[in-house]
Amino acid sequence: MGDRYRRTRDYSSTDDDMELMIRPTKRRRLLPSRVKMLDNETAVETFGRLMKALSIQNGCSMELKLEDLSYFYNDNLEDSKQAVLRILASCVIDHPAHASAYATFVGLLNIGNFQFGAECVHFMMHKLRTSMEDNQWKNSHGIMAFIVELFNCNVVTCNSLISLLTCFLSECVEVEEGDEVSDIVPQARRDWLAFCVLSTLPSVGKELQQKSASFQGLLLTLQIYVKKRIPLHAAMLGIWNGGSGCAQMDYLDLLWQQVERLRDQQWLEPEHQLLQRPYLAFDDTLSAALQHVLPPLKMPSHTQISAYPPARVVFRIFDFFTCPDGLQMPPVLSVERHLLEVQIQEILKVHHLERKLCSDHLCNYAKSKPLMPVHFCIVEVILGEMLQLPTSPWITLNYGSILVELSKRQPDKIPMAVMQGADIIYAQLESMSVACFDRLVNFFSHYLSNFGFNWHWGQWGKGCTGASALNSSQMFSSGDFQTKTVFLRELIKKCRRLSYHLNMTQVLPENMLHFLPPPPHPQFKYIDELVPGAKLSQLLLEAMRGRRAEPTEISTILTGSTDLHLLKINVMTQVCLHIGSKSFTHTFATLTRYQTVFKQLIHSESEQHAILKGVFELWAGNEQFKYVVVEKLIRMQIVEAKYVVTWIFAPQLRVELTKMYIWELLHATVRTVKHPSRLLPRKRSPETVKALEEMDDTEVAVKGILLEIIHRFVKVLAGSTEGPEGSNTHYWCQWVQGRMQEFLFVYSEDYKKMGTKLVKISEESDLRKGVIKTIQAFLAYTM
Amino acid sequence: MSTSVDLSSYRDQHFKGSRSEQERSLRDSTTLYVGNLSFYTTEEQIHELFSRCGDVRVIVMGLDKYKKTPCGFCFVEYYTRAEAEAAMRFVNGTRLDDRLIRVDWDAGFIEGRQYGRGKTGGQVRDEYRTDYDAGRGGYGKLLSQKIAPNTDNR
Question: Which branch of life, at top level (chain A) (predicted)?
Fold first, then answer.
C-alpha cells in the first residue's frame, strides 16, 4: 500500500505540504489538549466545535487542525465514542463538500485505533441505510460522499467500495421495457442513486480506474442510464424557455458530461485546488493503516410513501464568460464549475440565516481562490437558487439581504457581478418563466433601494418601445404587454412602493419616466355632484367626518336613500376609504368603526363584488392600497375569499391580470384560507391557532379555493384568442398561463393531493393546448 | 455565538413587570420595534418592506406626542414568531428611504407607546443629537434651540 500515497503526491505539491515538512520543530498547537484533561461533557462540546471548524476557510492550516483533532480525541474522548460518531455524522451530512477533511480525521485515528475505524465504518453504513429508509436523501448523499473519501484515506478497501457503488447503481441497470422494476421504481429514485455515485467520482475516479477492473462497467452503467433517461421535468423546471441564449441543463445530464470530460482527460486533477485532499499531507502515515471491508448494504426498497429529492435544472447566466478583471469562468462542462458551485451552495445552505456571517464565509472562500472569478459564481449561484423552480428554498429577501451585504463588503466586485447578471437576465427576459417573475422584481427593487436606486436605467429603457403606465380604463397599444415593458413597469412601481413618487421622478431618466404611473392618490368620484350616488355620499361624508356618527345613524341614512342597493354599497365603501385615505391605519380604523354597517349591507356575491368595485375605483391609481385593503376586508370577514377569486377573474379585470399586485392579492387570499386563525377577532392562544389550522374544514376549504382558482384560469384562458406571436393577446395568454403554473408550483403540496381532479380538468374538451401541457407536466413531475 | 435573532441589550424602562418577565415576553413576542426611520417614511413603505418577511398583522406608527406627526419609529406585529425572526435577520441594519434602520424585539404594543417620550414630544434621542439629520428634523432639539432660538417658534 505504501506507494499509493507516494504516487498520489503528484496530484499537487503545495505550499501547505512544504510548511508541514518544516513545521514539526516549532509547532504551535491550536489546542491546550495535552496540557489539561477536560471533563467529558466539555470535551465533547469542544470536539463538536472543532469538527464544525474543519469546514471553515479561515487561514489556519487544515493539516494542523486535523492533527490536533486526532490528539484531542486520543487524550479526551476515547470513552465517548458514540457521541463522537454522532457529531461526525452530523458534520458529514451538513458539509458534504468537506467530506475529505472528516475522512482524513478518521483515517488518522484508524492507524493507532483500528477498532475506532471499524466502529465508524459500521456506524456510517447503518446511518446510510436508516437515512434512506427515512427518506432523508440529502443526508445519505453526505454520508455516501464521506464513505467514498474513507477509501481515499485508506480506511476501506477498494473492492468493498466498488460493491457499494454497484449496489447503488443496480436499479439503474438497463431494464427491458415492460420490466417490472422500471414500472415500480420511479425515475426520481434512480436519478438520485445515479447522482450519489456520479458526484463522488471527481475525487475518487482516478484511483478506482487504476485499481479496479469493474470500475469501467460501473461507468458504462451510468452512461447508459443517463443517456437513455428522458428528463421530462427539464422543460418545466428550466427558468429559460427555449430560444434563450443561456444554456441550461438537467442536473444529472450536466454532471455526467462534466465527469465524462474528466475521464477523457485521464482524471486530471481539477485546477485551483477545488478538490480538497488533506489526506495527501499524511500519506506516509496513512499508508501504514489497515483497511476495513464495508459491510454489504441492504438497500431499502421503494415504497408507496417514499419521496425523493426533486430533479433540478442548473441555472446559468455566465456562459463562456470572461469577467472584467480578465479572469475566466470555468467552462460549463468542466468539473471545476461543478465543484465551485457545490462549495458555494454548501456555504449558503449552512449560513444563509446569518447574512453577515454568510458573507464573511463567501468572501473568505473567494479570497482563497484568487485566480478564479468566484464573485461571479457566487452571484450566479445565489440568483439561481432565488429564481429556482418550482420554488426557492428560502424567501426572496433572504437572498437579497445576502447580496446587499456582499455588495457592501466587496463594493469593487459584487455590485459589478450583480450588474452583469441583471443585464444578462434582462436581455433574456422574453424567455424567462413567468413563475419566477415576481421573485426577480421583488429582489431587484429591494436591492436597488439599498443603493439609492442607482442604476443604468437609461440603457434599459432604450430597447423598450412599450408605452405608458397602464390604467385599466385606458386602451392599450401594441407592445404594452411585451415582457420587458411589463418588467420595467412593475419594477418601477415596486421601487416606488419602497420609496416615494417624487424620488422616483428624480432617479429615473427622461426616457423612463413614462413607465412611472401618475402619483398614487385616491380618486373620489362622488365629488362630482352629477354622478349618481353623489347626494348619498355627501350625507355620509358629513355624518362620518362632521360628527363621527355612530354606525346606527349611518345605517339609517343608507336605509333612507332611494339609490339602488349596489350603488349604496359602492358609495358607502368609497366614502369610508376616502375618509381613511391618509394611511392604512386610517383606512382600517374607518372600516372597523363601520364594520357592522357593512355586514348588514353585504351578503351575496354581487354585493361583495360591489364593495370590491368601490375599492378598485377609489384606489384605481394605487395598487398597494387595493391589495392591502381587500386583504383586510377578508380578514374582517366582510368579504369572502371565494368571491375575491371570482372578482379577480371577472372580465373587467382582464388587463389587471398583467400586473403583479393582482397576483399578490390572490396569494394573500389563499393564505387567509390556509390560516383561518388570522381572521379577526384578534388575539387567540397558540393552542386555538393550532387547532383551527389543523381542522379538516380548513383542508377542505383550501382544496376548494385552489381548485376554484385552476377552474378560473382554465376558463379565462379558454375565452381568449391567442393571436399571432408578438401581439398583446399572445403575451397576455402566455403570461396568464405562466401564472397558472406558478400557482401549481407554489401550492404543489396541496395540488398533489388533487391529482385526479386535475386530470379531469385537463381532459375537458375546449382547453387550450398550453393549459393541458402545463397541467400534465405538473402531474408527471409530482406523481 | 450570538445570532441576529437574539435579544439586544436594550430594555424598555417603562415595562410593567420584572426583568425576567420582560425577557420572557421579548422571547415569545411577534412584535418588532423599528427605529431610525425618517420622519417622512410612510406606513405604506414600511408595509411594503416588512411584508416581504410574512403577513403583517398591524403597523403602529410612532408619533410626536404633541404634533401627532411621525417621529421616526414604529411597531410592526406579525402573526408568527418565524416571520418576525425573518425581519430581524434580513431587514435589521438594511436601508429604507436611504437610512439604515434598526429592528429589535418588542414586548408588544400597549396604547400610549406610539408617542415619543422626549420633553418636546418626539423621541428622546432627537433632543440630544448634535449632528444634522435632514430626515429627522435637522439638528437635535436642544441644539437647534441654542443655534436659532427665534426661528423655532413656527
Answer: Eukaryota
B43/A584 CB distance under 8 A: yes
Cα separation, B88 vs B92, in Å, equals 5
Is residue B50 one of the residues assigned to a domain?
A: yes
pTM assigned to the model? 0.92
For residue A401, give the nearest of B47, B79, B90 by CB distance: B90
Domain A328-432: which CATH number of 2.40.50.150, 3.40.50.970, 1.10.3720.10, 1.25.40.180? 1.25.40.180
CB atoms under 10 Å from CB of A656, counted, come to: 18
User: Hey, are the CB atoms on B95 and A675 less than 8 Å from each other?
Assistant: no
Domain ranges for chain A, please list them: 43-175+183-287, 328-432, 453-517
Q: What is the CATH number of domain A43-175+183-287?
A: 1.25.40.180
Q: Is the peptide bond before A517 cis (omega within 30 degrees of 0)?
A: no
Could you tell me if A50 and A38 are in contact, meaning their C-beta atoms sit under 8 angstroms apart?
no
As a residue count, chain B comes to: 154
pLDDT per residue rounded down to tens, chain B (154 residues): 789 999 999 999 999 999 999 999 999 999 999 999 999 999 999 999 999 999 999 999 999 999 999 999 999 999 999 999 999 999 999 999 999 999 999 999 999 999 999 999 999 999 988 899 999 999 988 887 777 655 444 4
Residues of A in contact with B103 (CB under 8 A): none
Look up residue A109 and give its amino acid. L
What are the Cα distances from residue A560, in Å, to A536, A579, A638? 10, 22, 22
Cβ atoms of residues A204 and A148 within 8 Å = yes
The cell for A722 is: 391567442
The domains spanning A43-175+183-287 and A328-432 adopt the same CATH topology: yes
Q: Write out the three cell numbers for A420.
A: 452583469
From CA B100, how far away is CA A272, in angstroms rounded? 39
Among chain B, residues having any CB pair with chain A shorter than 8 Å are 3-4, 40, 42-45, 47-49, 52-53, 55, 57, 59-61, 79, 86, 89-91, 94-98
Report the alpha-carbon distance of residue A560 to residue A540 in Å, rounded.
12
Is there a contact between A675 and B59 if contact means CB atoms under 8 Å apart? no
Residue B56 annotated as lining a ligand binding site: no
Q: Is residue B86 part of a domain?
A: yes
For chain A, the straight-line distance linking the first and the last C-alpha, in angstroms and rounded, comes to: 49
